[in-house]
C-alpha cells in the first residue's frame, strides 16, 4: 500500500499526485502540515518537507523523478532537503535502478545560477557535462 504525505497547496506534492495518477496508482493521502513539525513525520523525512511517498516495508521517498527515453525530465526534491545528503542518496538510488536496463542516462538543466545545486548534484554523482545544460552518466 502506498501512502503519500502531501499538502494540497505544495506544487511538489501536486506533481507527485499527477504522476501517480498517470501510473494508475491510488495512494492513501495524508495531509501533512509541515509547519507543525510532527515528530512522526520528521522520522520519515528529517527535512520536514512534502511530498513523501511511503510503500509498506520500504524506506520513505522524499522526492520524485520523471524519466523517459533515457533522460531525466523532472527531478523534484525540496530545496530545504538539499545539503542533508538526501539528494545524493535519492539520485544514486535512481542510477542503481537504471543500471539494470540502460548503459547511460542524461539529464537536462537550464544553465542558470538557480540551477547550480542540480549541476553540482549531477557532477558529484558521476555525470559529465556533454554540452551546456546536457549532462550524461555512463554506467
Q: In summary, what is this structure?
A:
The chain is an alpha/beta fold.
- Indicate the radius of gyration in whole angstroms: 15 Å
- Biggest β-sheet, characterized? 5 strands, mixed
Provide the CATH architecture of the largest domain: 3-Layer(aba) Sandwich
Number of helices: 4
Find the CATH topology of the largest domain: Aminopeptidase
Q: Mean pLDDT, as a whole number?
A: 87
pLDDT < 50 runs, ≥5 residues:
none
If you had to describe this structure to a student in words, what would you say it looks like?
This protein has 139 residues and is an alpha/beta fold. It folds into 2 domains: 2-55, 3-Layer(aba) Sandwich (Glutaredoxin), CATH 3.40.30; 64-138, 3-Layer(aba) Sandwich (Aminopeptidase). The chain contains 4 helices and 8 strands; from the N terminus they run E-H-E-H-E-E-E-H-E-H-E-E. It has helices at 11-22, 39-44, 86-99, 116-124; strands at 2-6, 28-31, 52-55, 64-68, 71-76, 104-108, 128-131, 134-138. The strands form 2 sheets. Strands 4-5-6-8-7 form a 5-stranded mixed sheet, with helices on both faces. The chain has a 3-stranded mixed sheet with strand order 2-1-3, covered by helices on one side. Strand 5 (71-76), helix 3 and strand 6 form a beta-alpha-beta unit. The mean pLDDT is 87.
Amino acid at each position: 500500500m502506498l501512502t503519500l504525505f502531501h499538502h494540497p497547496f505544495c506544487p511538489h506534492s501536486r506533481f507527485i499526485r499527477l504522476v501517480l495518477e498517470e501510473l494508475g496508482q491510488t495512494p492513501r493521502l495524508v495531509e501533512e502540515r509541515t509547519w507543525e513539525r510532527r515528530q512522526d513525520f520528521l522520522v520519515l523525512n528529517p527535512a520536514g518537507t512534502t511530498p513523501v511517498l511511503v510503500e509498506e516495508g520500504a524506506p520513505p521517498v522524499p522526492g520524485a523523478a520523471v524519466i523517459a527515453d533515457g533522460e531525466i525530465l523532472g527531478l523534484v526534491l525540496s530545496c530545504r532537503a538539499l545539503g542533508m545528503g538526501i539528494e545524493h542518496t535519492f539520485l544514486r538510488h535512481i542510477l542503481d535502478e537504471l543500471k539494470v536496463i540502460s548503459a547511460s542516462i542524461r539529464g537536462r538543466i537550464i544553465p542558470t545560477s538557480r540551477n547550480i545545486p542540480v549541476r553540482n548534484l549531477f557532477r558529484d554523482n558521476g555525470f559529465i557535462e556533454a554540452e551546456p545544460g546536457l549532462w550524461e552518466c555512463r554506467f
